[in-house]
Each structure stands twice: as structure tokens, then as C-alpha cells.
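# step 3/5: fold
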Amino acid sequence: MKYHISINQAGVFVSGLLPHTDLIDWAIVDYLLGVSIALRMVRKVIDGEEYVWVSTPAIVRQIPIIHLKRRAVHMRLRNLEKLGLIAIKMGERRQFYIRLTDKILSVLYFSTKHAIKDTYRATNDTTCATRCALLIN
């Protein structure tokens, strides 16, 4: 079981992905990040890009707090792909091979406080004023 889940809330907010994703998606993303950097994972080069094999049953086992079945995880992965956060290729036996995109990496490693302030000022979104204030300080 995965003991810790790390979510860069500032990165999610600033990227504009908040309305299109939820905590469950980001828990899955955190798992995918761990799998991507693990040295012992099965890797495959497809179309010149390196992909990592991901098991949907393993996601269900490793993140029990999300309470999803394999099919629901599959649908969440497809949504992350649609949002441009991951790339998916299917293996010969319907295996998932994933690659994290630059877009998701910019969300995961986002850390500039000034960018949050600029986004808040540009959108003038008063519904998130409290969240922005917490992120900025």
C-alpha cells in the first residue's frame, strides 16, 4: 500500500485543472509519478518515447483510499490522457503503458508564488480568493 499521497495544490489550481480533476485523479497521478521513476518497472520504447507499464489492479491495491474498481481506474486514466497529462499506449495483451507529459510535470513541480498571484489577478476569480491567499502566504 502507498502510505503517502502528495498533491501540488498550487500547481493544480494555476494550471486550470481544478474543474476537470479531483483528489482521486491526483492520488492516481502521484502513484503514476512513483511508477515512472521506479527503476525496477517494465519499460518499453514506443514511437521513440519511453513508456512504463502500469497495472490497474495494482493501482486499486496500492491506493485503497480511492475506493475504485479497475474499470473506474481505467476511465480515470483515459480522462488524464484526454487532458494531456499522460500519454497511453496499449500493449499486446491490453496492458497499459503510460508516459507523463510535460504538462503534468509542470503541474507536479510548480512552485512559484508569483505565478499564483499573477493568475489570481488575471482571472479576478473571487470564488478562490481564500485559497489563493493561503497559497500565496
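# step 4/5: annotate
The longest helix spans residues 23-37.
# step 5/5: archive (pending)
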